[in-house]
Amino acid sequence: MTVKPRYCAFVFACLAGVISSGSSVLGPIALGQDRPPNIVLLLSDDQAWTDYSFMGHESIQTPNLDELARRSAVFPRGYVPTGLCRPSLMTLLTGHYASTHGVTGNDPSPKYAEPDSELYNQRRAQLIANLDRLGAIPRLLGERGYLSHQSGKLWEGSFQNAGFTHGMTRGFPQRGGRHGDDGLNIGRKGIEPIAEFVDMAVSEQKPFFLWYAPFMPHSPHTPPERILKKYRNDETPISVAKYFAMCEWFDETCGEVMKLIDDKGQRENTMFVYLTDNGWIQDPASSKYAPRSKQTPYEGGVRTPIMYSWPGKIVSGERAELATSLDIVPTMLAAAGAKTPDGLPGLNLLPNLESGDAINRERIFGESFAHDIADIENPEASLLFRWVIEGRWKLLLTYDGETNRYASTHPRTEKGPQLFDLIADPSEQSNLAADNRGVVADLAAKIDAWYPLKTATTVVTVD
Questions:
Q1: Which range, of 8-17, 68-77, 99-108, 318-327, averages the lowest pLDDT?
Q2: What's the N-to-C CA distance of the chain in angstroms?
Q3: Which long-range CB contacts under 8 A does 58-63 form with residues at least 24 apart?
Q4: CA 207, CA 254: separation in Å to the nearest integer?
Q5: Which of 453, 330, 344, 321 lies closest to 399, judged by CA?
Q6: How far is CA 46 from the centre of its chain?
Q7: Phi then psi for 196, rounded to 5 degrees?
Q8: Tens digit of each residue's pLDDT (9 = 90 or more) over 66-90
Q9: Does residue 51 contact residue 58 with C-beta atoms inside 8 Å?
């Protein structure tokens, strides 16, 4: 890609900006002060919420995550607010909804600017610059003396741009820097960069933050034959067998990271957090995802187990409450004793995780946007769905945003409200809106109160 001078100045103004989220009131860790915990974020990529041994899958073997679950507070009813990788990862960096952090899809729509044109690349840089506006957790942890390492998926420029002190992704505008470049080698080609970083952090006696977001079990599904052969049989389509094997391979790499922490004597002072960025249901007839999974607001797209582990601090066991990835940033910052920015919508769960007390929350919200961002300054232009979960009920409202590519993923044939009883019907087969009009009206009002829209429209009445 040839970078023109005028565009080059714009890129470097955006990507070299210093994030100013306010200095930590606590400051760096003083000599002799109790060191805060290391924090390890394990993040799978394109994995269904059911596809773990500890979640009851009959075939997929995940012994390492099973072990982590045994020593964690586990939220089987965990969610990401947006079921698409880039906005989901940006939520984990900033703690905000996609409609707030501004990265609603994966790419600026090629319908309105030719890919790699000056205008298109200006829009890519402008999306990345949202980190300058909001700040990111690696930089906030850095104010407390943390070293941090990025590996795997990262869409928002280089690891330095996101505030990591160390990492693998070179990022846009460098060639191949769309969503991870060198970082995508982690896991599939071992974890040596992480091992080197942990050695260095331990030797310097610094707390550290690991962002382990490998391109797994994400396609291409190319598992080692030694794992694939476990799942090959006459009853299982090869596309499904490969996906199952990828889930186990990802679990194996998580075990390598966990063993590394143990071998360095860091387990007792390390907080692990686990989730997936968005769901995936394998199409048995191809290498692609099935309907109602990746990119969608259905359970197959947004639900994920969320786990928190910290020996001697967090009470282990299964939790019945709703959890959301929006909670992860304030919870990790609290564990580190770091400053929490004002206005984060998630909850600091640390007091509840330490005491075992129930979380005081009645409902969670989410939103879905098109993969292609029609207007990077107007999230409503690509808004497809908003949803709320309260108790057993999930209400899904459909909007008229533009999809461009991937239109088949979002047929939106049902224009009216969709109401599901997630306890009785977790696969969302029966729309109960017509028999529960009062519930629909109540939940639709709560979605609107969450944040009112300016132009996007939906149907809230039941025929």
A1: 8-17
A2: 53
A3: 59/231, 59/236, 59/244, 60/244, 60/247, 60/248, 61/230, 61/248, 61/251, 62/247, 62/248, 62/251, 63/251, 63/255
A4: 20
A5: 453
A6: 10
A7: -65, -40
A8: 999 999 999 999 999 999 999 999 9
A9: no
Tens-digit pLDDT profile for residues 230-261: 999 999 999 999 999 999 999 999 999 999 99
Q: Are the C-beta atoms of residues 233 and 58 closer than 8 Å to each other?
A: no
Structure tokens, 308 = 């928190």
Instruction: Please state, in angstroms and rounded to a whole number, the distance separating the CA atoms of residues 69 and 250.
Output: 15
Per-residue burial over 302-336, b if 16 or more Cβ lie within 10 Å, else e, is bbbbbbbbbeeebebeebeebbbbbbbbbbbbebb
The torsion angle over the Cα atoms of residues 439, 441, 446 and 450, rounded to 10 degrees, is 140
In angstroms, the CA 333 to CA 273 distance is 12
CA 392, CA 99: separation in Å to the nearest integer? 25
For the four alpha carbons of 70, 71, 75 and 80, in that order, the dihedral sign comes to negative
Cα–Cα distances in Å, from 413 out to 408, 417, 419, 426? 11, 11, 15, 21
Q: Model pTM?
A: 0.93
Using the structure block, give the residue that is written with the tokens 């260095």.
200
Q: Are 138 and 197 in contact (CB under 8 A)?
A: no
pLDDT over 90 (residue 60) = yes
Say how far apart CA 262 and CA 319 lie, in whole Å: 26
Angle between helices 5-15 and 118-128 (to 10 degrees): 10
